[in-house]
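User: hey, got a sec? need TonB-dependent receptor folded
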Amino acid sequence: MFMPFPLRQSTVVVSALLLQAFPALAQDLVVKDSVTVTATREARASADVPESIAVIGGERLEQEKMFNVSDALKGTPGVLIQSNNGAYDARLIIRGAGLKANYGIREIMVLRDGVPVTDPDSFTRLDFIDTQDIEQIEITKGPGNIYATGSAGGAIQILSKSVFDEQQDQIRLGLGEQDTRNLHLRKSGFSESGNALALTYSHRETENNWRHWNEFQSDQLGVKGGLLLSDESELELELSLTKADVQLPGGMTETQFEQFKETGKQEGNNSAFKHSGRYSEIIFANSRYTRALTDNTDFIQRLYINHWSHYHPVTGAINDTPDVTIFGTDLEIRHQHTLLGNDSLVAGITVRQDRDDGSKKYAYRDYLSSSSGRMLATLSDEKGDWLETQDTTNTVIGMFFQESLKPTERWLVDAGFRLDHISIKQETLSSDTAYNYGAGRYVTIPGSGGYSELDKSFTLFSPRLGVSYRLNPQFSLFGNIAQGEQVPFSSELESNHDLKSATNRSVEFGVKGRAENWQMDMSIYFTKVDDEIIAILEDGRTIYQNAGSTDKKGLELQGQYQLFNNQIGSLWLGASYAYSDYQYDAFQETVRVAGGPTSFDRTGNQLPYVPNHQFGLSASYQHPSGIKARLQADTWGEYYLDNANTEKYGGYDMVTSLNLGYSQGPHAVSLNVQNLFDQRYAVEVKKDTSGKKSYTSGSPRTAMLSYRYQF
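Assistant: Yep! Here you go:
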């Protein structure tokens, strides 16, 4: 197996080689860099952030289909992201955080324009994010981010197009294979005093004819307002309405996967539940008020409310959730001062609550069963007998503080922390009937139902100290130490009331290089996780346990180089690589076997699903005439399927996407092709404690033609 440099020496070695190989860079080239606001809550060049950060800009976003955030984030080292259904949903893992989630995003804070999309217990819904209304995406990796309440994996900030930007008015139409359609419209207006109003509408739809039960449709209407007030303050308001429906096709057996590789079609799934889906309606409103208190001090207040409901048939039950409300506020002060130099202070408080009132579970009404009563296949997603009613309240009260010191032009020090108190309260009234995963049928046990309560609270402390040193105008070194704590999800606590919060402690250092015609980032990290929350697949369900400790270490490298820029155009070449070595340092996995629960020692085993090696290659070309092209190929190495490390999946090699475009004046046309060489592969393979494997297929080749007119 390939092994990287000794990790403790790599940063110094690579920095020295770069400086020796390119001595002229320190004097002759102009620095070109992206600006980020996610890591420090203030605008700063990414080279001056003493931690790993990736910025996906508007030019890249325009070249993607953007049905899903995974379209933009693929190829980012240390970030594993896949859409298992081709819709808005995505499974996201950053440096191992998020691995426990079978679907969706957990352990990672996601924000939109500074407003948390992630619930207080770390679960993130992406169905109301308008992916056609994104200006920039920023990713910070690892614990200790002052945005990340109760999340250890870092933060993703989705910045939408500003209401004050009149250059963003457009209509965009798209048609593609698999009966895919896309429409986006934005129109804004401005008053003489500078006040602004913008309307947006987006429609996404695909039938995904290559497999059964995988249609997706989303409609989103948004209104943004911006007011420039007379007292040197600014108020931004937003209201959006979303209706999003997605069918979830499920995984495949090994035999079904082999058939898919031959035909390119998925005819069925490996579960008796053939009608899983998520059908949501969302109302989202938020405001941001900014006021200059003095020449050096700004006050920012964010208020937000998100109300949603969904109908969610899954394994064993149909979830009917009619009334979920999330509301909260951030109060923030930003102060510029001169303690050691051009320094700044950011501090504030967070109050947020998630209320789920009257959530119900039902049995499936229509299904086929065997003579023993085992469910063979659902016939519809209509609800039958009532199983459970539940009320849940999650509350977070927190504070954050970060001091940024710049004693000289070369040195920058960030020191800060988050302190959050999270409480989870749940009341459940259940019937005497429940789905028995082992028997594969609904079982009624008189007296087994009734009323129960769950009341858990966690106090989380997340400090971080980061230092950056500029070697010269192009190169800088950085290092940081940080801690983050991960709260269990409420449904995880249902399966195991004794779950503890996980504590991540990380040390990272690296080098960043920036110039007009190249850039590079390299980082090495060591993370120790105590009480990591581990998902265990058992008889079609997931149960959760704490591992004693987990060791994670890795190397991430990403760079771009402009090969030429002349009368025939501009060509950029890019490459990324991530090495991940994640092992259980102490883990006794409890598995239910014929004789009852049995403990197995997994110490020294690799964590499943995360490959040791992940890399990507890209090329972007632009001609003065307006012709554009972008090619990207991504590779995932092999990985283990389970905690026992009984078997590996080989991953996939060079899955390639292509975008061809032409723009002239306000007009632009583009062709986006996913999986250009029509590879038949799995985006995820899992194995449960009984040995049953499940394959989730990647999409065959699809093409989409888009036209955009800016006005």
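Quick note: Residues 7-710 form a domain with the Maltoporin; Chain A fold (CATH 2.40.170.20). Let me know if you need anything else on TonB-dependent receptor.
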